[in-house]
Amino acid sequence: MSERDAGQEVLRLQGLRKSYNVGKPTEVEVLHGLDLRLQRRDFAALVGASGSGKSTLLNLIGLLDRPTGGELFLLGQATSGMDDGERTALRGGSIGFVFQFHHLIQAFTALENVLMPLMAATGKPDGEQVARARALLAEVGLAGLEERKPDQLSGGQQQRVAVARALVSRPALLLADEPTGNLDSKSAAEVFQLFRRFNREFGCAVLLVTHDPRLSAQCDRTITLMDGRIECDDAPG
Asked: What is the fold of 3-234?
């Protein structure tokens, strides 16, 4: 990765707002004009009390929901005017997701689960894509376990499969929503170090939602949401 790529802006929010029940007496705005930027090498925690708007914000950044005001730029592309197909294509090629619960397909092997994003985008994976998925499973410490089903893997191993799945499309942005919340401390530390490694080696920006102050303290940057506003953005420099 070149120095130019290292400084590339991955995400930019400009005055981002989100309301529910728009136009009704019960209308409520939950995000109030957020401004935020993430660069290629950023490794940031998103923290805040329950109800602060973290999940709503993550859904907007992941292009799973639409804002009611402002603009969201992903890799320099304004997304507000995109139709659903364009948003789906941009999301599939640019964003990886890891959740607290791995959401693996139980009938599929570890390898097939990792290949799912590529299969959804292109149909049957080619040889290069299968090799990439196998290499990623090896990178996360699961070499030799490619043909195992999820119920044949430990919780930590299943979450590693989920990490490999999130990275197989080589995303510019990795969104992790409480990714270690369902793991023991040893497995949690191992998964966190995987995020660190891929952030450094492949330059994918990481935005990690966590309630664990031990994890947020290990991130390079902490973004604190309070009542739908960014209260603090502890960015380097």
From this structure: Rossmann fold (3.40.50)
